Give the backbone structure.
Amino acid sequence: DVKVTQSSRYLVKRTGEKVFLECVQDMDHENMFWYRQDPGLGLRLIYFSYDVKMKEKGDIPEGYSVSREKKERFSLILESASTNQTSMYLCASSGLGRSRPQHFGDGTRLSIL
Amino acid sequence: AQSVTQLDSQVPVFEEAPVELRCNYSSSVSVYLFWYVQYPNQGLQLLLKYLSGSTLVKGINGFEAEFNKSQTSFHLRKPSVHISDTAEYFCAVSDDTSGTYKYIFGTGTRLKVLA
């Protein structure tokens, strides 16, 4: 079974801090994704990566950056955390091709105080 | 660009009753469609997928979905629900317009199974 592991289930940070969310997958997947999930808005794509060191902006990239130095690891960075970034963050991975389903981690619930 | 609409934000249903969760997508030449389930405090788990072939797709936990190209719909059904089916359900379509591998998700439907 595919395993996508997010480093923290719950995280509390302060406004202005630089925040790192880590995601690791163990199935040698090419594609990795970061979403945020908010009530009533569903899942919104922040960034995705289709190869090491490659990244593309999703629908809501403002205030975020990403890093993919190794194939199995995809990090989401909040450069200067703000209260409106309090949310559930979900990482996913998939193999090559549109037909491949995405596999999700358990999520990180991030609170910015 | 693709869009996905889940019209029902919440669906209450009694245990052992049938349920249908609706999903409509905007038209496209070819689509790949998915249903995911999210239990409380967990990530999303794949229920089923439509890639091609038979329009009736069977998934895990007794769920099935029917692809209807003319109505651009992919509704999820279960003939008899259990308390344990209480969760949020997301419909997703693979976007073929951008040449990348993005999914477009609906806003989700909360299924509440009542005893």
